[in-house]
């Protein structure tokens, strides 16, 4: 199965947006699936469903770190990693107008915070662009990192 199809399958099986992106590419990054799912879970719904940075974009940023960072404290890869994050976020934003979850979903951010995820019904998938955003982030990762 290709990565984009895997991301869609993960999302439609109940994983959140961030999990679906990183889960689709974790094998390529040398990251085991279970660890990837645990690390990325809190980023779904724009970080814990706070509707901030899109979880799919957060998953994409995790992939940047896995590909480009040496993970040390002297920051010798930091500038390159940050530059790539900006580049990929700009690419995503050029297609969608923003990287902010609430704006992508057309939600009024003044609504009271609710951490409970919506049920994944046919109606949910019809009204939410999330699966397409997940697929788009995986495609960007393929084009720019892998």
Structural commentary:
This protein is mainly α. The chain is 64% helix and 0% strand. It has nine helices and no strands. The chain has helices at 3-12, 17-29, 33-40, 44-47, 55-68, 78-96, 101-104, 122-127, 130-144. The longest helix is centred in the middle third of the chain and has 19 residues, at 78-96. The two termini are 16 Å apart. The mean pLDDT is 93.
Count of discrete alpha- or pi-helical segments spanning 4 or more residues: 9
Structural class: mainly alpha
Ends apart, CA distance between termini: 16 Å
Q: Major β-sheet, in short?
A: none
What best-fitting shape do the alpha-carbon axes yield?
globular
Please tell me how large the radius of gyration is. 15 Å
Order of helices and strands: HHHHHHHHH
In terms of DSSP E residues, the strand content is under 5%
* Overall average residue pLDDT: 93
Share of helical residues? 55-70%
Low-confidence stretches: none
**Oligomeric assembly:** single chain
Number of strands: 0
SSE map:
Blueprint: H1 3-12, H2 17-29, H3 33-40, H4 44-47, H5 55-68, H6 78-96, H7 101-104, H8 122-127, H9 130-144
Helix pairs in contact: 1-2, 1-9, 2-3, 2-5, 2-9, 5-6, 5-9
Summarize it:
Helix 1 packs antiparallel against helix 9 and helix 2 (17-29) runs parallel beside helix 9. With 146 residues, the protein is mostly helical. It has helices at 3-12, 17-29, 33-40, 44-47, 55-68, 78-96, 101-104, 122-127, 130-144.
Structural key phrases:
146 residues; mainly alpha; 9 helices; 64% helix
